[in-house]
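Subject: design request, 104 residues
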């Protein structure tokens, strides 16, 4: 997977998340919005899936079915996904701490 395809996947995932709450409802019905817990679960599952792909490529290389470049690419994509997840986590924690410091 190349960098442009990673970016395309990220944009598609963001569009899916944004589209979850944009469904039209009849008057009187509750309008649903994306659930934060579901968004986090979706993001974590994406990182886990990326890690599984890297593991699979590593096993293929050990069996002689994949080359080193594919393995290094898969591992680096997993690293980027994990770093992104950690930075989002840090921002969420920072926002929570800032909210807790606000006076009521």
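Subject: RE: design request

Done. Sequence follows.
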């Amino acid at each position: 997977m190349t960098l442009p395809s990673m970016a395309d996947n990220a944009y598609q995932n963001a569009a899916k998340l944004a589209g979850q709450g944009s469904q039209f409802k009849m008057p009187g019905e509750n309008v649903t919005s994306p659930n934060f817990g579901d968004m986090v679960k979706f993001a974590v599952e994406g990182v886990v899936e990326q890690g599984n792909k890297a593991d699979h490529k590593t096993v293929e290389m050990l069996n002689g079915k994949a080359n080193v470049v594919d393995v290094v690419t898969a591992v680096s994509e997993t690293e980027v996904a994990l770093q992104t997840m950690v930075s989002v986590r840090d921002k969420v924690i920072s926002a929570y701490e800032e909210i807790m410091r606000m006076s009521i």
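The helical segments are 3-19, 36-62, 68-101.
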